[in-house]
Structures are given as structure tokens and as C-alpha cells.
Write a structure and sequence with these properties.
Oxidized Rhodanese, domain 1; 11 strands; 365 residues; alpha/beta; single chain; Rossmann fold; 2 domains; 17 helices; globular
């Protein structure tokens, strides 16, 4: 009898390969980091079976499913599942609720000579387990927030701590108007699932004090889990300081040099530079109201001159100009305003090494 398993914690901690047999439209909304989509039915087939189920009941829907997935189509899909099992003998398969679709996939694989374990409760059970993991971690663990002005190197600090959780890394966004990457952010479900698995690993490692960056409720277009937002609102902060010139150079590297490289790698020189230029101007335009018309025009003019320069290396001084002004006249005043509101929760402030030493001594994990 093919195996049915429900040890969700061990499956997710192990990073086991997962065969997601749901339709592509379901997979695209979100799955798990190690999942590969090998559906029983494609989107159109699933829609037809769903309509049949509503109109004529389960038996008719099952008959239609067998009619749609038979002959060469069935052979091709079974071959793909068997190939996955041979490539990943340590893996598991699932559908939405662990019901008919995954049962049928498991049965057809068995008929082809491959016994492969199926996850009880399917995607829904794994998803519920991860949501509960995040909520329970926020209830059980303490958080320390790393705050600091734009460009102080908060992410670099987090990378040196083994009990830190990189929220911006999971969101694939640096958090500000200029913070997107050349590639899109994950779906909300993929973001939440990957974050929860990170928290699961932190708990498995024995950490009960976790360090995260002091974020807004959203990072780009992705919202943090509500239990995490509530926890962050009452957690202590350390403030990371850095010399102004160092901050300018870090922002120049992250938001100009490295980001342009991402676009060029993705789209080539001409199209990549055009997409990069469009991104920076769009980011500037998103904060037009908060900048005010005159300042927005002034910064946009400097930015456009930098982007129009035929020699990228020669344009960097112009990029430094708009970055410097944006920090001095926009980001720093806004940060000082928000810091005042959190003054009572600040437990330490200093430059990178001092903050790292404080965390290791007072919040070791």
C-alpha cells in the first residue's frame, strides 16, 4: 500500500523535494520552496472537471477526469512523475487537500512500479502548519529589531548573525521606494511559506531570541504576517549608525551599481540600461508628493542627466548627488521622526562592530 505521511515538521526541515500535483494556476499562486509542479490536470482540464462536479456530482466529475487524462496524455504525465521519483527518491507528493488527485497520481505511479509517499492533508495541511509555526514562534520567542537610517548596513549586520531572519531577503525587496530588484517579488504565499520555514529552522536550532530588521508592515507589495507585526510593535530596538559618506557609497552600490548589473544580466546592455533607468525614475516619481514639486524636479533632473551619460563610470558622481540630497532632505528627516516615536524601546545604539558586540552579548539567541 503506498505510504501516507503527516510528519510535516520533519518534511519541511529536511528540505525534501515535493511534487505538487495541483494545476499550474494553483501552483503559481504559491507553493513551497522545494516544490516542482507536475500536475495531474492542466488548468483547462481542472476547470472542466470542477464545473462538471458542481453540475452533475462527484462520480461524473471523476469520469470526466479520466476521459481528459488518458492514453498518451496519461503516459506522458506518469512518465514525468516517475522521473521525479527517480531523481528524488527522498521526496513526497501532494495535491490541495491530499484527496482524489494525489491519490490517483500515487495509484498510477504504483501501477508503473514506483511506490511514492503522499502527504496527508496535502498543500492545505502544510500551509496550515507553516502559518501556525509563524504564530507560535512569535508567541514563544523574543525579537530584537535592528533600526538605522537608510544605508547604514543593517542587512550586512544581519548576515553576520546566525539567529537573524532576513525579512527583506525573503521579500526580495530592500524596503524603500527604490528597493525593488530586477526580478519580481515572490507571491504572498511563497513569501510567507519561505519565512515560516526559516523560523522553523531557527527554532530547530534552539534559538529563542531572533534578530530582524525594523520594517514597516509591508516590504514592497508584501505584507508581514500579523503576528509578526504585533510582536515587532512592542520589541526592543538597537540603532545602527554609520558615517554619512559610507551610507552614500553603500546606497550607490546597492541601488545603482549592483541593481543596474541585475537588469543588464537579465535583459542585455541596451534593454537592461533602459529598464534600470525606468525603474529609478519611477521610484523617484512614487515619492513626488512627499518630496514636493520643486525638489522632485531638481532631483529628477540630476537623475536624468546621470542616466543619459554615455559613460556609466563617469555618471556615478551625478548619482551620488541625488542620493546625497535624497538622504539629507527626505530619508534622514523621515527616519528621525519615526525614531522619536520608538525612543522608549531603544536599548543600544552605535556603529556596526559595537552593535554586533552588544547583540552577541545581550541577545545571543
Amino acid at each position: 500500500m503506498p505510504e501516507l505521511v503527516d510528519h510535516y515538521r520533519e518534511i519541511l526541515l529536511s528540505g525534501a523535494p515535493l511534487m505538487d500535483t495541483r494545476a499550474p494556476v494553483e501552483f503559481d499562486l504559491g507553493s513551497f520552496p522545494t516544490a516542482e509542479n507536475l500536475p495531474l490536470m492542466l488548468d483547462e482540464e481542472r476547470a472542466a472537471v470542477g464545473t462538471c462536479y458542481k453540475q452533475k456530482g462527484q462520480e461524473a466529475a471523476i469520469r470526466l477526469g479520466h476521459e481528459l487524462v488518458h492514453g498518451k496524455i496519461k503516459e506522458q504525465r506518469v512518465a514525468a512523475w516517475v522521473d521525479f521519483a527517480h531523481r528524488h527518491p527522498e521526496g513526497y507528493l501532494f495535491c490541495f487537500r491530499g484527496g482524489l488527485r494525489s491519490q490517483l497520481v500515487q495509484q498510477w505511479m504504483a501501477e508503473a512500479g514506483v511506490e511514492y509517499p503522499r502527504i496527508a492533508g496535502g498543500y492545505k495541511a502544510l500551509r496550515r502548519f507553516l502559518i501556525d509555526t509563524t504564530d507560535q514562534t512569535m508567541a514563544d520567542c523574543s525579537l530584537l529589531l535592528v533600526s538605522g537610517m537608510t544605508g547604514t548596513g543593517k542587512t550586512e549586520l544581519l548576515m553576520r548573525l546566525n539567529h537573524a531572519v532576513d525579512l527583506e531577503g525573503h521579500a526580495q525587496h530592500r524596503g524603500s521606494s527604490f528597493g525593488r530588484h530586477a526580478h519580481p517579488q515572490p507571491t504572498p504565499i511563497n513569501f510567507e511559506n519561505a519565512l515560516a520555514i526559516d523560523l522553523l529552522h531557527q527554532r530547530h536550532a534552539g534559538h529563542w531570541q531572533l534578530v530582524v530588521e525594523d520594517e514597516n508592515q509591508t516590504i514592497g507589495r508584501l505584507a508581514l504576517p500579523q503576528s509578526m507585526i504585533r510582536k515587532m510593535e512592542v520589541s526592543p530596538l538597537v540603532v545602527l549608525d554609520a558615517p554619512f559618506a559610507e551610507r552614500v557609497e553603500r546606497i550607490l552600490k546597492d541601488y545603482v551599481i549592483d541593481l543596474r548589473g541585475e537588469f543588464l544580466d537579465q535583459q542585455g546592455l541596451e534593454a537592461g540600461h533602459a529598464a534600470f533607468a525606468q525603474h529609478l525614475q519611477a521610484a523617484m516619481d512614487r515619492i513626488r508628493k512627499r518630496l514636493g514639486g520643486e525638489r522632485h524636479q531638481r532631483l529628477s533632473r540630476i537623475l536624468q542627466e546621470a542616466l543619459a551619460c554615455g559613460d556609466f563610470s563617469a555618471s556615478l558622481d551625478q548619482h551620488r548627488q541625488w542620493i546625497t540630497t535624497l538622504l539629507e532632505e527626505y530619508y534622514d528627516p523621515m527616519y528621525h521622526h519615526h525614531e522619536k516615536q520608538k525612543q522608549g524601546r531603544i536599548v543600544f545604539r552605535g556603529e556596526a562592530q559595537a552593535v554586533e558586540d552588544f547583540i552577541r552579548q545581550q541577545y545571543p539567541g
